[in-house]
Each structure stands twice: as structure tokens, then as C-alpha cells.
Design goal:
Chain lengths: ~190, ~250
């Protein structure tokens, strides 16, 4: 059973539709027991990090995520919340990935919106995906590059387009909204 | 190549059918929106916008059933607009598969709508659509589907919208709409110094060169078109190939 984690910062519908196009009927839930028993969890998210972290802690969803032993995929804000700290609201996050989340900064808050290329791909998540393929991004904060980085994208600076540590995966882009290439990445996750 | 320029197809929908007008009038039927959405996604369009153009005037809620049928089909970003005036409206649309919403008249009548929506759903979700008409001395904002003039200069409204939390600006030049004579490049270029959020140019696309011009001369981040795509005058793959020859980065 594939579970999509439902919380106060998710637009879960797009992810659910994308999985259905791949023939998978996912369960959308915030029930810690159901999530704990899932074969895989997708942790989506759009919105602000501070409010999202407070909600995850209040509902004890943070413990479910961090103790999950099977493949888990954070998308966009979901991936950022898996890092150690976010400058968006100056909030401590789940610390699955040790790097911090910073703001694209030229003195003003800059948004990275649109299709950009992913490079230096190094994970089973990208099986069959060529270097420099385009994915859809929409974010104003980014995760730094570290040893956990499995894909890099350049905007104002190079940043982690994707991260992996053991069974934990995160992508900054939206595979559910990124055409056939994004669909293949989701399929790769389902096949892990 | 890095971040690309985006090509967006717009489905203006009235009574469940795709329509297209000239300068917002004399609407013609352009087909089934669900079929068109699938066709554009296959062709490689970067994004889709769905506007229920009857919504504000006829005080109807956006056709959520149709939104869901389109959202199920397509795997690219999907913006929905038309008659949106509350958090509840947006909640419903996101529930049916929209990724972003566009607000227009309601945001002019009550600016706090932009702030409330961006706080609740995030800026990335809020596209502020603006219909602009060139008058003797300035580009002014029009509301209610381009039928009601305001005294607000476009430059001032885009800055306000950005400060209130808009994630993108969709700016339609009514003078150019449906004329196929090119985008209002000077309008887009004039607002770009004030904006750190993307601007989507709309109105006037007639050929591939017009798209190149709005990206280079107009400095737009994305270009939206309807009629020229619907009647298959210009195919998306051919347009993208042309833009690449002009050294304009696009997704292929």
C-alpha cells in the first residue's frame, strides 16, 4: 500500500492523480498507524516550513516519518522539511538530511519558478533518466549541496535538486507535474 | 540552458466549451476542453491555464467537475481561474486537482484576498491575472472580464499584487487580444524592473516570431496563447524548435 501523507501544507490531489495514471490507488492519510504500515510513503508539500513543522509535531507525524524503514519520498517542501533546519521561519526540521535550507537571495526574496535541468544524477531514483532533463520547480528556498545530493540544479547558485540517505529520498522539483520524465521518476520510486 | 521560458496554452471556457474571442468579444467555439488539454500536454506545452470566463459576470462558481476531468489527464502545472473570491473557492479547486489559482476582479475589489490566499496556500499557488487596456496616456487595469474600467495604472497594481504575496502575474493586453499582431512588448518590458516574480504575457500571439520578441524585447518569463494554438496555426513542437534557433531556452 502506497500512502500519501496528508497535512496542512500539502496539495495531495496532484500526487494522487499522478499515481493513478501509473495504475496505483494511493491512500491519502494522516493516520500514524496507517502510515506506519505502508509499503511506501510520499510526503508532498507546498507552503511555509514553520507552520508545516508545527503541525507535523503536533500530530506526531514527525516520528512516523523519521522512523519509517521503507522508501519514503519527500517532494518540494516535503524534501526541505527532511533537512536539519529551514531559514523559512528559522525552524528546526526533521534532520534526516544534515544540510540546511537557505533562501535564494539577491537582497529580495527570489522565486525559482519553471522548468529547469537536473544534472549529476546518481541514484536508482533516476534509472533511465538522461542528464539535463527538465523538471518543474516552484520554490524560493533551497537545500545546500552535500554528500547526500543525488541531483544538482543551477539557478542563482547550484543546489540539491534531489537527496537520498538510505531509504529516504527527496526531490525539490515536482515529478507529478513534470511530464513523461517526472512520471518515470515516480515509477522508479514505486519500483524501489 | 538552465531555467527555461515557458509556453502556456489557455483554455477560455464558457458553458463547458472552449471559446475564443477577439478583444474579449465575439466568442467562437474551439472545442472540448478536456480533449484540448490532452492534446497540448502530448504536444509538449509547459503549462495549462483554464479560465471560466463566464464565471464572474454570471456569478457562477467555476466548473469543478470539468477541472477534475482535466487534472486527471495532464501531468503539467495547471492553473484555474474564474469567479474565485474566497479561501473556500480555492480549497475546492485544489481538491479537484488545480495546482494554482488565478484571481482577477475579486482581488481588485478586495486586495486582502491576495494576502489571505498566499498565507493560506503559499505564494506559488496565487497567480494574479490582470486585464490591461492602453488609454491615451497609460495602461490601465480593467475588471469584470475587461468590461469595467478602473483608474489603476498597471505598474502600480503589479507592484501591489507582488507585495501582497502574488506568486506570478498573468498580464493580458486587451488591445492585442485576438489580433494576432504580436504581444504588447513595451508593456511587459516596462513592468519587469519592478518585479521579482514571473510575468506571463498574454494577448496578441500570431506567429513564432511574436513569442521570440516577447521573451527578448518584452522580458517576459512565460507567454500564453489560445487561438493560435487551438486552430493549429502554430504547433508547440515547431514553436519550440524555432525558439531554440533564436537562443531562447525552452524545454524539449
Amino acid at each position: 500500500m502506497i500512502a500519501i501523507l496528508k497535512y496542512n501544507a500539502g496539495n495531495v490531489c496532484s500526487v494522487a492523480f499522478a499515481l493513478r495514471r501509473l495504475g496505483v490507488d494511493a491512500v491519502v492519510t494522516d493516520d500514524v498507524v496507517v502510515l506506519g504500515g505502508a509499503d511506501k510513503i510520499i510526503f508532498p508539500g507546498v507552503g511555509a516550513a514553520g507552520a508545516a513543522m508545527a503541525y507535523l509535531r503536533e500530530k506526531r507525524l514527525d516520528e512516523v516519518i523519521c522512523s519509517f524503514q521503507k522508501p519514503l519520498l519527500g517532494i518540494c517542501l516535503g524534501m526541505q522539511l527532511m533537512c536539519s533546519f529551514s531559514a523559512e521561519g528559522n525552524v528546526d526540521c526533521l534532520d534526516i538530511f544534515s544540510q540546511k535550507v537557505r533562501r535564494f537571495d539577491d537582497g529580495e526574496c527570489l522565486q525559482h519558478v519553471g522548468w529547469n535541468q537536473i544534472k549529476q544524477l546518481s541514484s536508482p531514483l533516476f534509472k533511465g533518466i538522461a542528464e539535463d532533463e527538465y523538471q518543474y520547480f516552484v520554490h524560493g528556498y533551497y537545500a545546500e549541496i552535500s554528500a547526500r545530493t543525488i541531483a544538482v540544479t543551477n539557478y542563482e547558485n547550484a543546489f540539491s535538486a534531489a537527496l537520498q540517505r538510505d531509504n529516504f529520498y527527496g526531490v525539490q522539483f515536482h515529478p507529478e507535474k513534470s511530464g513523461p520524465v517526472g512520471q518515470r521518476i515516480l515509477q522508479n520510486f514505486l519500483s524501489l | 540552458m538552465g531555467l527555461t521560458k515557458r509556453l502556456i496554452a489557455c483554455l477560455d471556457v464558457k458553458d463547458g466549451r472552449t471559446v475564443k474571442g477577439v478583444q474579449f468579444e465575439s466568442l467562437r467555439d474551439m472545442g472540448d476542453p478536456v480533449a484540448l488539454a490532452g492534446y497540448y500536454t502530448e504536444a509538449g506545452i509547459d503549462e495549462l491555464v483554464f479560465l471560466d470566463i463566464s464565471a464572474t459576470n454570471e456569478r457562477r462558481k467555476t466548473l469543478t467537475g470539468l477541472v477534475k476531468r482535466i487534472a486527471r489527464e495532464i501531468n503539467i502545472p495547471f492553473t484555474v481561474g474564474g469567479g474565485i473570491s474566497s479561501i473556500a473557492d480555492v480549497d475546492a479547486l485544489l481538491e479537484f486537482g488545480a495546482d494554482k489559482v488565478s484571481v482577477n476582479t475579486a482581488a481588485i475589489n478586495d486586495q486582502s484576498l491576495i494576502e489571505n490566499l498566499s498565507k493560506r496556500f503559499g505564494s506559488q499557488c496565487v497567480v494574479v491575472a490582470i486585464d490591461a487596456k492602453q488609454t491615451a496616456d497609460d495602461w490601465l487595469v480593467y475588471k469584470n472580464g475587461g468590461t469595467v474600467a478602473t483608474k489603476i495604472p498597471v505598474t502600480s497594481w503589479v507592484k501591489t499584487a507582488q507585495d501582497l504575496g502574488a506568486g506570478e502575474i498573468l498580464l493580458t493586453a486587451i488591445n492585442n487580444d485576438g489580433t494576432k499582431s504580436g504581444f504588447a512588448n513595451e508593456l511587459y518590458n516596462s513592468i519587469s524592473p519592478y518585479l521579482r516574480i514571473p510575468v506571463i504575457a498574454s494577448g496578441g500571439a500570431g506567429n513564432a516570431q511574436h513569442f521570440a520578441e516577447v521573451f527578448t524585447q518584452g522580458n517576459a518569463d512565460a507567454a500564453l496563447a489560445a487561438g493560435i494554438f487551438h486552430n493549429r496555426m502554430l504547433g508547440v513542437p515547431a514553436l519550440k524548435q524555432f525558439l531554440l534557433t533564436q537562443n531562447i531556452p525552452v524545454r524539449i
